[in-house]
Amino acid sequence: AKHSGRSTFSWYTPELDADAQKRKEIELGLEKALKYDQLKLLYQPQYSLKDGVLKGYEALIRWEHPTRGIIRPDVFIPIAEDTGMIQEIGTWVLNHACREAAMWSDTARRVAVNMSPAQFVAGETQNRVAQALHASGLHPSRLEIEITESLLISNTDAVIETLQQIRSMGVSIAMDDFGTGYSSLSYLSLFPFDKIKIDKAFIHNLGKDPSTDAIVTSIIGLGRSLDVTITAEGVETENQVVLLRAAGCDLVQGYLYGKPDSVDVHETAEPEMAAR
Ligand code: C2E
Ligand code: CA
Ligand code: CA
Ligand code: CA
Protein backbone atom coordinates (compact mmCIF):
# COMPACT_ATOMS: atom_id res chain seq x y z
CA ALA A 1 0.00 0.00 0.00
CA LYS A 2 1.19 3.51 -0.69
CA HIS A 3 -0.02 7.08 -0.76
CA SER A 4 -0.30 8.71 -4.13
CA GLY A 5 0.54 12.38 -4.71
CA ARG A 6 -3.03 13.54 -4.41
CA SER A 7 -3.24 11.94 -0.99
CA THR A 8 -5.75 9.36 -2.08
CA PHE A 9 -5.03 5.93 -0.72
CA SER A 10 -4.36 3.19 -3.21
CA TRP A 11 -3.59 -0.46 -2.52
CA TYR A 12 -2.08 -1.37 -5.82
CA THR A 13 0.76 -0.03 -7.85
CA PRO A 14 0.24 -0.02 -11.59
CA GLU A 15 2.84 -2.82 -11.95
CA LEU A 16 0.80 -5.03 -9.65
CA ASP A 17 -2.27 -4.38 -11.75
CA ALA A 18 -0.40 -5.43 -14.86
CA ASP A 19 0.83 -8.55 -13.08
CA ALA A 20 -2.60 -9.46 -11.85
CA GLN A 21 -4.00 -8.95 -15.30
CA LYS A 22 -1.35 -11.14 -16.86
CA ARG A 23 -2.06 -13.86 -14.31
CA LYS A 24 -5.74 -13.71 -15.06
CA GLU A 25 -5.04 -13.95 -18.77
CA ILE A 26 -2.82 -17.00 -18.26
CA GLU A 27 -5.41 -18.58 -15.98
CA LEU A 28 -8.17 -18.28 -18.55
CA GLY A 29 -5.83 -19.17 -21.38
CA LEU A 30 -4.75 -22.39 -19.71
CA GLU A 31 -8.27 -23.74 -19.74
CA LYS A 32 -8.35 -23.18 -23.48
CA ALA A 33 -4.88 -24.66 -23.84
CA LEU A 34 -6.10 -27.95 -22.43
CA LYS A 35 -9.32 -27.86 -24.38
CA TYR A 36 -7.79 -26.94 -27.74
CA ASP A 37 -4.66 -29.06 -27.54
CA GLN A 38 -2.14 -26.20 -27.23
CA LEU A 39 0.14 -28.02 -24.78
CA LYS A 40 3.00 -30.14 -26.02
CA LEU A 41 5.98 -31.97 -24.63
CA LEU A 42 9.54 -31.53 -25.77
CA TYR A 43 12.18 -34.10 -24.90
CA GLN A 44 15.74 -33.46 -23.79
CA PRO A 45 18.20 -36.36 -24.11
CA GLN A 46 20.18 -37.86 -21.23
CA TYR A 47 23.42 -39.68 -22.02
CA SER A 48 25.54 -42.11 -20.09
CA LEU A 49 28.89 -40.42 -19.55
CA LYS A 50 30.79 -43.70 -19.45
CA ASP A 51 29.87 -45.02 -22.89
CA GLY A 52 27.89 -42.25 -24.61
CA VAL A 53 24.69 -44.31 -24.76
CA LEU A 54 21.42 -42.38 -25.00
CA LYS A 55 19.53 -43.54 -21.93
CA GLY A 56 16.33 -41.55 -22.22
CA TYR A 57 14.68 -38.16 -22.26
CA GLU A 58 13.21 -35.66 -19.82
CA ALA A 59 9.77 -34.44 -20.89
CA LEU A 60 9.45 -30.65 -20.66
CA ILE A 61 6.13 -28.94 -21.22
CA ARG A 62 5.51 -26.02 -23.59
CA TRP A 63 2.38 -24.00 -24.30
CA GLU A 64 1.92 -23.12 -27.93
CA HIS A 65 -0.18 -20.01 -27.50
CA PRO A 66 -2.11 -19.01 -30.63
CA THR A 67 -1.00 -15.35 -30.49
CA ARG A 68 1.84 -15.14 -27.95
CA GLY A 69 3.95 -17.96 -29.33
CA ILE A 70 5.69 -20.56 -27.22
CA ILE A 71 5.33 -20.02 -23.47
CA ARG A 72 7.83 -21.65 -21.08
CA PRO A 73 6.65 -23.60 -18.04
CA ASP A 74 8.21 -21.19 -15.54
CA VAL A 75 5.56 -18.69 -16.66
CA PHE A 76 2.46 -20.84 -16.38
CA ILE A 77 3.19 -23.83 -14.09
CA PRO A 78 3.27 -21.69 -10.89
CA ILE A 79 -0.10 -20.20 -11.84
CA ALA A 80 -1.50 -23.64 -12.63
CA GLU A 81 -0.29 -24.74 -9.18
CA ASP A 82 -2.09 -21.85 -7.49
CA THR A 83 -5.37 -22.36 -9.30
CA GLY A 84 -5.38 -26.14 -8.97
CA MET A 85 -5.26 -26.56 -12.73
CA ILE A 86 -1.96 -28.40 -12.24
CA GLN A 87 -4.02 -31.53 -11.56
CA GLU A 88 -5.42 -31.62 -15.05
CA ILE A 89 -2.19 -30.48 -16.69
CA GLY A 90 -0.14 -32.98 -14.72
CA THR A 91 -2.41 -35.83 -15.69
CA TRP A 92 -2.19 -34.75 -19.31
CA VAL A 93 1.64 -34.68 -19.08
CA LEU A 94 1.79 -38.13 -17.52
CA ASN A 95 -0.51 -39.70 -20.09
CA HIS A 96 1.04 -37.93 -23.04
CA ALA A 97 4.64 -38.74 -22.04
CA CYS A 98 3.83 -42.43 -21.50
CA ARG A 99 1.95 -42.66 -24.79
CA GLU A 100 4.73 -41.00 -26.77
CA ALA A 101 7.50 -43.01 -25.10
CA ALA A 102 5.63 -46.23 -25.84
CA MET A 103 5.99 -45.37 -29.54
CA TRP A 104 9.74 -44.72 -29.56
CA SER A 105 11.71 -47.13 -31.69
CA ASP A 106 14.27 -47.89 -28.97
CA THR A 107 12.30 -49.64 -26.26
CA ALA A 108 15.08 -49.31 -23.69
CA ARG A 109 14.87 -45.56 -23.42
CA ARG A 110 13.22 -43.99 -20.43
CA VAL A 111 11.03 -40.96 -20.09
CA ALA A 112 11.34 -38.68 -17.07
CA VAL A 113 8.27 -36.68 -16.08
CA ASN A 114 8.26 -33.67 -13.73
CA MET A 115 5.58 -33.66 -11.05
CA SER A 116 4.98 -30.63 -8.89
CA PRO A 117 4.14 -30.97 -5.19
CA ALA A 118 0.72 -29.43 -5.84
CA GLN A 119 -0.08 -32.44 -8.01
CA PHE A 120 0.26 -34.93 -5.20
CA VAL A 121 -3.07 -36.00 -3.82
CA ALA A 122 -2.97 -38.81 -1.30
CA GLY A 123 -4.54 -41.94 -2.70
CA GLU A 124 -4.88 -40.54 -6.20
CA THR A 125 -1.41 -39.89 -7.55
CA GLN A 126 -0.45 -43.56 -7.62
CA ASN A 127 -3.69 -44.39 -9.47
CA ARG A 128 -2.96 -41.77 -12.09
CA VAL A 129 0.50 -43.19 -12.65
CA ALA A 130 -0.90 -46.72 -12.88
CA GLN A 131 -3.57 -45.59 -15.31
CA ALA A 132 -1.08 -43.78 -17.56
CA LEU A 133 1.09 -46.91 -17.69
CA HIS A 134 -1.88 -49.15 -18.34
CA ALA A 135 -3.40 -46.97 -21.07
CA SER A 136 -0.10 -46.55 -22.91
CA GLY A 137 1.29 -50.03 -22.39
CA LEU A 138 4.61 -48.47 -21.36
CA HIS A 139 6.71 -50.77 -19.19
CA PRO A 140 6.93 -49.23 -15.69
CA SER A 141 10.73 -49.51 -15.73
CA ARG A 142 10.76 -46.94 -18.54
CA LEU A 143 9.00 -44.26 -16.49
CA GLU A 144 10.75 -41.96 -14.07
CA ILE A 145 9.11 -39.32 -11.89
CA GLU A 146 11.11 -36.19 -11.01
CA ILE A 147 10.17 -34.48 -7.77
CA THR A 148 11.79 -31.72 -5.75
CA GLU A 149 12.48 -31.80 -2.04
CA SER A 150 9.72 -29.24 -1.43
CA LEU A 151 7.29 -32.15 -1.84
CA LEU A 152 8.73 -33.78 1.26
CA ILE A 153 8.64 -30.69 3.45
CA SER A 154 4.98 -31.01 4.33
CA ASN A 155 2.84 -34.07 4.79
CA THR A 156 5.85 -36.33 4.82
CA ASP A 157 4.27 -39.65 5.79
CA ALA A 158 1.49 -39.60 3.19
CA VAL A 159 3.86 -38.43 0.47
CA ILE A 160 6.45 -41.08 1.28
CA GLU A 161 3.76 -43.76 1.20
CA THR A 162 2.61 -42.53 -2.21
CA LEU A 163 6.18 -42.51 -3.52
CA GLN A 164 6.73 -46.01 -2.16
CA GLN A 165 3.62 -47.28 -3.94
CA ILE A 166 4.71 -45.71 -7.21
CA ARG A 167 8.16 -47.19 -6.80
CA SER A 168 6.75 -50.63 -6.05
CA MET A 169 5.13 -50.57 -9.50
CA GLY A 170 8.66 -50.47 -10.94
CA VAL A 171 8.70 -46.72 -11.69
CA SER A 172 11.84 -44.90 -10.60
CA ILE A 173 11.90 -41.70 -8.54
CA ALA A 174 14.44 -38.92 -9.05
CA MET A 175 15.19 -35.98 -6.77
CA ASP A 176 15.41 -32.91 -9.00
CA ASP A 177 17.32 -29.68 -8.34
CA PHE A 178 19.45 -31.40 -5.71
CA GLY A 179 21.37 -29.02 -3.47
CA THR A 180 19.19 -25.95 -3.98
CA GLY A 181 16.86 -26.49 -1.02
CA TYR A 182 17.52 -26.26 2.68
CA SER A 183 17.71 -29.91 3.54
CA SER A 184 18.31 -31.93 0.40
CA LEU A 185 20.62 -34.23 2.34
CA SER A 186 18.19 -35.08 5.11
CA TYR A 187 15.54 -36.20 2.60
CA LEU A 188 17.85 -38.82 1.20
CA SER A 189 17.41 -40.84 4.38
CA LEU A 190 13.61 -40.55 4.24
CA PHE A 191 13.13 -42.12 0.85
CA PRO A 192 15.24 -44.44 -1.32
CA PHE A 193 15.61 -42.29 -4.42
CA ASP A 194 16.78 -44.02 -7.59
CA LYS A 195 18.39 -40.92 -8.98
CA ILE A 196 19.68 -37.51 -7.94
CA LYS A 197 19.84 -34.64 -10.39
CA ILE A 198 22.49 -32.09 -9.47
CA ASP A 199 20.98 -28.67 -10.04
CA LYS A 200 22.20 -26.77 -13.06
CA ALA A 201 23.32 -23.83 -10.91
CA PHE A 202 26.16 -26.03 -9.59
CA ILE A 203 27.06 -27.31 -13.05
CA HIS A 204 27.15 -23.73 -14.31
CA ASN A 205 29.90 -22.83 -11.82
CA LEU A 206 31.87 -26.02 -12.29
CA GLY A 207 35.52 -25.26 -13.01
CA LYS A 208 35.03 -21.61 -12.02
CA ASP A 209 34.82 -21.91 -8.29
CA PRO A 210 36.70 -24.45 -6.13
CA SER A 211 33.91 -24.83 -3.57
CA THR A 212 31.40 -25.69 -6.30
CA ASP A 213 33.81 -28.29 -7.66
CA ALA A 214 34.09 -29.79 -4.20
CA ILE A 215 30.31 -29.86 -3.69
CA VAL A 216 29.68 -31.54 -7.04
CA THR A 217 32.41 -34.10 -6.42
CA SER A 218 30.91 -34.84 -2.99
CA ILE A 219 27.38 -35.28 -4.36
CA ILE A 220 28.71 -37.73 -6.93
CA GLY A 221 30.61 -39.62 -4.22
CA LEU A 222 27.47 -39.65 -2.09
CA GLY A 223 25.54 -41.11 -5.01
CA ARG A 224 28.09 -43.86 -5.34
CA SER A 225 27.97 -44.81 -1.66
CA LEU A 226 24.16 -44.74 -1.59
CA ASP A 227 23.99 -46.60 -4.91
CA VAL A 228 21.97 -43.78 -6.46
CA THR A 229 22.43 -42.73 -10.10
CA ILE A 230 23.69 -39.17 -10.47
CA THR A 231 22.62 -36.93 -13.35
CA ALA A 232 24.21 -33.56 -14.06
CA GLU A 233 21.73 -31.18 -15.66
CA GLY A 234 22.52 -27.98 -17.55
CA VAL A 235 25.78 -29.28 -19.04
CA GLU A 236 26.90 -26.67 -21.57
CA THR A 237 30.68 -26.92 -21.97
CA GLU A 238 33.34 -29.52 -22.72
CA ASN A 239 35.22 -28.42 -19.62
CA GLN A 240 32.23 -29.32 -17.44
CA VAL A 241 32.18 -32.76 -19.07
CA VAL A 242 35.87 -33.30 -18.30
CA LEU A 243 35.29 -32.47 -14.62
CA LEU A 244 32.10 -34.54 -14.37
CA ARG A 245 33.79 -37.52 -15.97
CA ALA A 246 36.76 -37.27 -13.60
CA ALA A 247 34.35 -37.18 -10.65
CA GLY A 248 32.52 -40.28 -11.93
CA CYS A 249 29.13 -38.74 -12.79
CA ASP A 250 26.70 -41.26 -14.36
CA LEU A 251 24.43 -39.26 -16.67
CA VAL A 252 24.58 -35.89 -18.40
CA GLN A 253 21.87 -33.65 -19.80
CA GLY A 254 22.21 -30.15 -21.22
CA TYR A 255 22.45 -27.90 -24.25
CA LEU A 256 25.87 -29.36 -25.13
CA TYR A 257 24.15 -32.67 -25.88
CA GLY A 258 20.78 -31.45 -27.07
CA LYS A 259 18.10 -28.90 -26.35
CA PRO A 260 14.54 -29.96 -25.58
CA ASP A 261 13.02 -30.93 -28.93
CA SER A 262 10.90 -33.60 -30.56
CA VAL A 263 12.34 -37.09 -30.26
CA ASP A 264 12.37 -37.38 -34.07
CA VAL A 265 14.84 -34.51 -34.27
CA HIS A 266 17.12 -36.14 -31.68
CA GLU A 267 16.98 -39.51 -33.43
CA THR A 268 18.25 -38.04 -36.67
CA ALA A 269 20.91 -35.86 -35.02
CA GLU A 270 24.62 -36.24 -35.79
CA PRO A 271 25.79 -39.56 -34.30
CA GLU A 272 29.01 -38.10 -32.90
CA MET A 273 26.90 -36.14 -30.40
CA ALA A 274 26.25 -39.39 -28.54
CA ALA A 275 29.89 -40.38 -28.38
CA ARG A 276 31.08 -37.07 -26.97
P1 C2E B 1 13.68 -28.48 -14.44
O1 C2E B 1 12.88 -29.73 -14.19
O2 C2E B 1 14.79 -28.20 -13.51
O3 C2E B 1 14.14 -28.60 -15.95
C1 C2E B 1 15.39 -28.15 -16.43
C2 C2E B 1 15.26 -26.85 -17.16
O4 C2E B 1 16.57 -26.47 -17.62
C3 C2E B 1 14.40 -26.90 -18.41
O5 C2E B 1 13.76 -25.64 -18.54
C4 C2E B 1 15.42 -27.10 -19.52
O6 C2E B 1 14.97 -26.67 -20.78
C5 C2E B 1 16.55 -26.24 -19.01
N1 C2E B 1 17.85 -26.67 -19.53
C6 C2E B 1 18.21 -27.86 -20.05
N2 C2E B 1 19.50 -27.89 -20.42
C7 C2E B 1 20.00 -26.68 -20.11
C8 C2E B 1 21.31 -26.09 -20.25
O7 C2E B 1 22.27 -26.69 -20.73
N3 C2E B 1 21.43 -24.81 -19.79
C9 C2E B 1 20.40 -24.11 -19.26
N4 C2E B 1 20.63 -22.86 -18.85
N5 C2E B 1 19.15 -24.63 -19.12
C10 C2E B 1 18.97 -25.91 -19.54
P2 C2E B 1 12.23 -25.53 -18.97
O8 C2E B 1 11.93 -26.56 -20.01
O9 C2E B 1 11.93 -24.11 -19.25
O10 C2E B 1 11.48 -25.97 -17.65
C11 C2E B 1 11.55 -25.17 -16.49
C12 C2E B 1 10.93 -25.87 -15.30
O11 C2E B 1 9.52 -26.03 -15.48
C13 C2E B 1 11.47 -27.28 -15.08
O12 C2E B 1 12.70 -27.21 -14.41
C14 C2E B 1 10.36 -27.88 -14.25
O13 C2E B 1 10.50 -27.52 -12.90
C15 C2E B 1 9.13 -27.20 -14.82
N6 C2E B 1 8.44 -28.12 -15.75
C16 C2E B 1 8.74 -28.38 -17.05
N7 C2E B 1 7.89 -29.29 -17.57
C17 C2E B 1 7.03 -29.61 -16.57
C18 C2E B 1 5.91 -30.52 -16.47
O14 C2E B 1 5.53 -31.23 -17.40
N8 C2E B 1 5.26 -30.56 -15.26
C19 C2E B 1 5.66 -29.81 -14.18
N9 C2E B 1 4.97 -29.93 -13.04
N10 C2E B 1 6.70 -28.99 -14.25
C20 C2E B 1 7.39 -28.88 -15.42
CA1 CA C 1 13.29 -31.84 -13.99
CA1 CA D 1 16.22 -29.54 -12.42
CA1 CA E 1 13.66 -26.60 -11.39
From TrEMBL:
Keywords: Membrane, Transmembrane, Transmembrane helix. Residues 23-274 form the EAL domain. The keyword Secreted does not apply. This is Diguanylate cyclase (GGDEF) domain-containing protein. It comes from Roseibium denhamense. The chain holds residues 390 to 665 of 685 of the full protein.
